[in-house]
Amino acid sequence: MTFLVPFDGSYLAEAALLRAAEYGESLDQEVLALTIVPDDEAYAIDVGWYEEGEDEPFSVPYVAGKLQEGVTDIAPQAAFRYERIDQGTAAAITTRIRAITEEIRPSVVFLGTDNVGEIAQPVTSVAGGVAENPTYDVHIVRYYAPPSIPEVRLAEGMYET
Q1: Each residue of 51-70: pLDDT tens digit?
Q2: Which stretches are annotated as coiled coil (predicted)?
Q3: What is the mean pLDDT of residues 98-118?
């Protein structure tokens, strides 16, 4: 099984990755950080992935490499995957994330979002579109650092059929 974390480098995406890594280590599960990078320099500047005047010209692989460094800093054991898209809209990003979840079939998607109360409907939220799929569980992370999980123990026979 895989724990999937849509990762955009934001504070709460980092928190979701940290939480997924904690659970993954405790439950011996793979963690995959997934970044969707629009091929749009203005979008990358707007979300803080790229600054005008950087030594390196804008490119999707360059931006993805910077985000991968962030993933490695937080969860060195996590795998990293990025996908390039043309449009930097929430709908386009959501569509790509959903397509990848259909491909890899994660057991849990860890979402970092602070708009949990609005998650079902916001037009500008990627989280809402990802969370509505009933084929996987969703773990919503709203805070960066609750207490770490020293160990996860399942009750005997809890999941036996």
Answers
A1: 988 899 999 999 999 999 99
A2: none
A3: 80
Q: Can you give the pTM of this predicted structure? A: 0.79
Residues 6+ apart with CB under 8 A from 42: 88
Residue 115: partners with Cβ closer than 8 Å, 6 or more residues away:
122, 125, 127
Structural domain boundaries enclosing 51: 2-141
CB 62, CB 7: distance < 8 Å = no
Q: What is the pLDDT of residue 90?
A: 85
Max CA distance (Å), the chain: 59
Contacts of 156 (CB under 8 A, 6+ apart): none
Mean pLDDT of all residues in the chain? 81
Residue 135 domain-assigned (yes or no): yes
At position 26, the amino acid (one-letter code) is S
Q: How many domains does the chain have?
A: 1
